[in-house]
């Protein structure tokens, strides 16, 4: 996992007022996972809401099952420590990140509800409409 290094890089770019491009081959799974982890760290969102925020801007966002598991583990075990680390390292976040994320989440949910109620073309495509798996779906026990 490269969450700490990625979160640090993204945050430092943003604090410097610079842009930051997070990319992978398709821009669907790996890069999305890192951005979701960052959003989780700078807000109080869990991984599913943070993913919805990303989907509001990039509808094809869909981390693979392994990355979903990592995000679930991050939420369950690590995100609180990362939030504390970010505050200690960089101070309080004075930006409007939480409000902006809430606005995007609201936009995503409104569009999803509208699509569902009208039976129209999905606002998010088939890749992003795959259901998230619950934490218990990942087990090594048989």
From TrEMBL:
Region annotation (Disordered) maps to 111-142
Which terms does the UniProt entry file under GO BP?
A: signal transduction
Task: Respond yes or no to whether keyword Magnesium is given for this record.
Answer: no
Q: Which residues cross the membrane?
A: none
An example of a Pfam family matching this protein is: DSPc
Cellular compartment(s)? Cytoplasm
Which is one Gene Ontology cellular component term of this protein?
A: cytosol
Keywords attached to this Swiss-Prot or TrEMBL record, sorted alphabetically, are: Cytoplasm, Hydrolase, Protein phosphatase
User: Which InterPro entries is this protein grouped with?
Assistant: Dual-sp_phosphatase_cat-dom (IPR000340), Prot-tyrosine_phosphatase-like (IPR029021), Tyr_Pase_dom (IPR000387), TYR_PHOSPHATASE_DUAL_dom (IPR020422)
**Which stretches are tagged as biased composition: Polar residues?**
113-142
Catalytic reaction equation(s)? O-phospho-L-threonyl-[protein] + H2O = L-threonyl-[protein] + phosphate; O-phospho-L-tyrosyl-[protein] + H2O = L-tyrosyl-[protein] + phosphate; O-phospho-L-seryl-[protein] + H2O = L-seryl-[protein] + phosphate
Where mainly located? cytoplasm
PROSITE patterns reported in the protein's UniProt record = TYR_PHOSPHATASE_2 (PS50056), TYR_PHOSPHATASE_DUAL (PS50054)
* PANTHER family with a match to the protein in the record: DUAL SPECIFICITY PROTEIN PHOSPHATASE 22, DUAL SPECIFICITY PROTEIN PHOSPHATASE DDB_G0269404-RELATED
What family is reported?
Belongs to the protein-tyrosine phosphatase family. Non-receptor class dual specificity subfamily.
Name-wise, this protein is DUS22 phosphatase
Q: Which organism encodes this protein?
A: Todus mexicanus
């Amino acid at each position: 996992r490269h969450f700490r290094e990625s979160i640090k890089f993204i945050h430092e770019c943003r604090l410097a007022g610079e842009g930051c491009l997070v990319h992978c081959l398709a821009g669907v799974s790996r890069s999305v996972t890192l951005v979701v982890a960052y959003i989780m760290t700078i807000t109080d969102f869990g991984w599913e809401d943070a993913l919805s925020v990303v989907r509001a801007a990039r509808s094809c966002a869909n981390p693979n099952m392994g990355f979903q598991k990592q995000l679930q583990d991050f939420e369950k075990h690590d995100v609180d420590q990362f939030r504390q680390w970010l505050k200690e390292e960089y101070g309080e976040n004075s930006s409007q990140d939480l409000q902006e994320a809430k606005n995007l989440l609201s936009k995503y949910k409104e569009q999803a509800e509208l699509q569902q109620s009208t039976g129209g073309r999905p606002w998010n495509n088939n890749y992003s409409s795959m259901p998230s798996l619950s934490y218990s779906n990942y087990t090594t026990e048989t």
